[in-house]
From TrEMBL, chains A, B:
Signal peptide: none annotated. Gene3D superfamilies: 3.40.50.2300, lambda repressor-like DNA-binding domains. Keywords: DNA-binding, Transcription, Transcription regulation. It comes from the Bacteria. This is LacI family transcriptional regulator. PANTHER family: HTH-TYPE TRANSCRIPTIONAL REGULATOR GALS, LACI-RELATED TRANSCRIPTIONAL REPRESSOR. It comes from Actinoplanes couchii. Residues 2-56 form the HTH lacI-type domain.
Amino acid sequence: MATIADVARAAGVSPMTVSNVINGHPHVRDSTRAKVLAAMTALDYRVNVAARNLRRGRTGVIGLAVPEVNRPYFAQFAAAIIAAAQRRDLRVSIEQTGATRENELAVLGLSRNRLYDGLILSTVGMGAADTEHLKVPYPVVILGERIFNGPVDHVAMPNAGGARAAVRHLADRGCRRIAMLTGVETTEVGVSELRLTGYRLALQDLGLRYDPGLVQRMDEMSMGAAAERVHAMVTGGLDFDGLFCLTDTAAMGALRALADLAVAVPEDVKVIGFDNIEEGRFLVPSLSTVDPDHQAMAESAVGLLARRIDGGAGHEEFVSRFTVIARESTAV
Amino acid sequence: MATIADVARAAGVSPMTVSNVINGHPHVRDSTRAKVLAAMTALDYRVNVAARNLRRGRTGVIGLAVPEVNRPYFAQFAAAIIAAAQRRDLRVSIEQTGATRENELAVLGLSRNRLYDGLILSTVGMGAADTEHLKVPYPVVILGERIFNGPVDHVAMPNAGGARAAVRHLADRGCRRIAMLTGVETTEVGVSELRLTGYRLALQDLGLRYDPGLVQRMDEMSMGAAAERVHAMVTGGLDFDGLFCLTDTAAMGALRALADLAVAVPEDVKVIGFDNIEEGRFLVPSLSTVDPDHQAMAESAVGLLARRIDGGAGHEEFVSRFTVIARESTAV
DNA sequence: TTGTAGGCGTTATCAC
DNA sequence: GTGATAACGCCTACAA
């Protein structure tokens, strides 16, 4: 529990000099530096981050708010964010919002207590009407579509474009009755709606009729819910030969349900997901998907936030590129 | 950026009274409280956490160091920890160690900067020889076996017991040549060794001969590495009818490799994992596993840490119960 | 019930 | 190249 003052006393210098040594200031005589370093070692000195934060007005911590870390996609994203932050000497504190609007707003409020230097917020429940809430006195990067015109940076996925490509991929492999497994209509520009837009655009491209019966909405994007829904679709006699799932996680559930019902994938139904979670490669059959390049998104989110923390102005938007990854679940 | 002083001025009271209102002290006249609250709202006052931390000597943040959040098991665990911490008004900052000894030690050092009130450390790379490093001036809960006699609490999994039960489960279903997919020998009491102990004990119980050739060690516990290794085992002509995988993640890779080689699961080889990750239920075939009750472990880890933060003494150890979950991969 | 004084540990400023 | 001073915003003790 030694303080700078203790070290200064031991080294026979002033606290300020110790501080200068700690912070690598150039104008310190080598012999002085040596004395100070020796004293620091002897006393096992550690900086008190709270005091430094108070003085500097910064915490060195950024917040990351995601629905739940225990979802492969967000886990992957969180891992990438933490790694990117580490490279910039920032620590990451994670908040779980459960994908609800209230919790997303609560996180914005929390951070106003200067807990974090900045916040990366994955918006799922919030909508355009909540733009006001984004007017907070610290940098925010929204992970999601440009829902808001507020004073925030955005890191977006190519939702519509990726979905469009996924559906085209199914059609290229011969599918004509392509179903989509998506979420409930939350906000007009939520992930579900954007990917649904891509789905519809693809159908148009292909000259296929849009059949609302093929669009299946689920309350919750879990493997279990997806499995149940697909089960119901098949036993209910819905006719489809392709299935585009909103997320890979949902696709995992779908694959399981199809296996239960002895519907062969890809022979009877071809399945494609979205996110490229690591697990997809190892499923049986392995899962075709849209890869939105998390790495680039994470790097960009942290980069934008860091720039803003350092006083950068102007609101930027980053949209990652995507790739369609063809695996067994859509093989011909 | 209003401070307590600003609020006090606006409300016509002293800063101390504002502080009392903020912290819910009882002896404040209602009318005074009302005035203060009004001023706080008007000025949009937010406490400065850095200042409060400095004064209180606490940060309200606990560190959670895991190899990587992007591994289903640790993601699940992290989610549970964060939820448990949230219930106690603690925030969780995550560090990724990559399962290396150096990084685990580095995290211990980091936290000495009073960044966290306490630390939950998942030890993988550290061994008994590192006990010294655990002597840090803040509470630590080790997630892992009682490797150390140091001044720390432990939250342990029933590694040996769970492994023993898993192997017995395979034998009960008719397996006689049971292979184990495990990690490299790191520490004498690492997860790999403990579960291997369970494996050997089970063989003894069953009167089966221990065949070192059936114990397959991998450098890295990933799906990809496991798939490769199992591929090599089969194409190399290794004779086995049961496979106990160190983790469910490894088992996912194993299942994939077996499918590639047209080895039927469970008919030709039965497979069981360890961890009960959520995905296991949805694999094809669904994965039998040992469930170590993460929920209880997480709750207990945060509970122990919170108690220590609040000054509790004495080193406790919590070992969770386990259950063997039988699914398709070990069906008869 | 409310207010005053002081210090938590660090660092920016500016003088020497 | 080094150091004195002051301040970051809050809260514990004590006084009124």
